Amino acid sequence: TQLLEQSPQFLSIQEGENLTVYCNSSSVFSSLQWYRQEPGEGPVLLVTVVTGGEVKKLKRLTFQFGDARKDSSLHITAAQTGDTGLYLCAGARRDDKIIFGKGTRLHILP
Amino acid sequence: DTGVSQNPRHKITKRGQNVTFRCDPISEHNRLYWYRQTLGQGPEFLTYFQNEAQLEKSRLLSDRFSAERPKGSFSTLEIQRTEQGDSAMYLCASSSQWSGGRGTQYFGPGTRLLVL
Question: Which residues are B29's β-sheet partners?
C-alpha cells in the first residue's frame, strides 16, 4: 500500500516565524499536489509539482519536489494568521489515482 | 463560477434514512472522484468515473453506497440505510484525463453529513 507520511501532524507557531512541513513516501509519484483546507470547506489547490528537484514559489510559500519524486516540502516564510489551516499533500500515480497524506494542521498565533 | 459544486452543503438525517448528494464537476473535466473525510484525516478515496464509466471502487464503498454519472457530467452519491458511522464530509473532485499525467484534482466545497 502506498502511503504518504506528513510531518509534523500539528504545528502551532507565532506569527512572523518560518516553518517547514514535509511529505514523504517510499513510492515515486508522477506529480504531487499541495492543498490547503479550512474547516467545513473542500481542499483548495496550492500547487502541482511534476519534475524531480522542482521548486515553486507562491508568495511566502515555497514548494520543493524531491529529486527522486518521492518526497516534498512546503516552507512558509514569515507566517501569518491567515496561513492557519490543514495542509494536505497528495501524490498522483501514473494512472492518475491520488494518494493523500493525513495532513499537517497549522495554527498561527497572533 | 466554473469550479466544482456540491449540493447540499450540509445534511442531517436519522439513522436508517437514505441520502443523495450531487456533484457538478468543472465542465471540461471528464474524470470525477468521490472521497470521504473524517475529522483529523485526509480524504479517503471512494470511487471514480471517467466520463460515464465507473472505473474503480474502494473497499470502503459498501453495498449501501452507490454512485452514478449517467451522462458523464454531474454525479450522484447515494447512501442507503445510513448509519452513524457514515457521518463525515463527502468531497467531490474532478480532473482532466488529458492533464499530461499531472493528475491535478480540483475539489468542491463538500457535503457534511450528520447521521443522528
Answer: none
Yes or no, beta carbons of A42 and B109 under 8 Å apart: yes
Place of cell 449517467: B70
Cβ–Cβ contacts within 10 Å for residue B69, how many? Answer: 22
- Tell me the torsion sign for CA atoms A63, A64, A65, A66: negative
C-alpha cell at A78: 514569515
Number of residues that make up chain B: 116
B43 closest CB neighbour out of A44, A92, A100: A100
Report how far apart, in Å, the C-alpha atoms of A45 and of each of A88, A89, B14 are.
9, 10, 34
Q: What is the mean pLDDT of chain B?
A: 91
**What grid cell was written down for A26?**
517510499
pLDDT at residue A1, rounded to an integer: 54
Round to whole Å and give the CA distance between A47 and A44: 9
> Which H or E run includes B87?
none
Look at B103 and A93 and tell me if their CB atoms are within 8 Å: yes
A96/B contact by beta carbon, under 8 A? yes
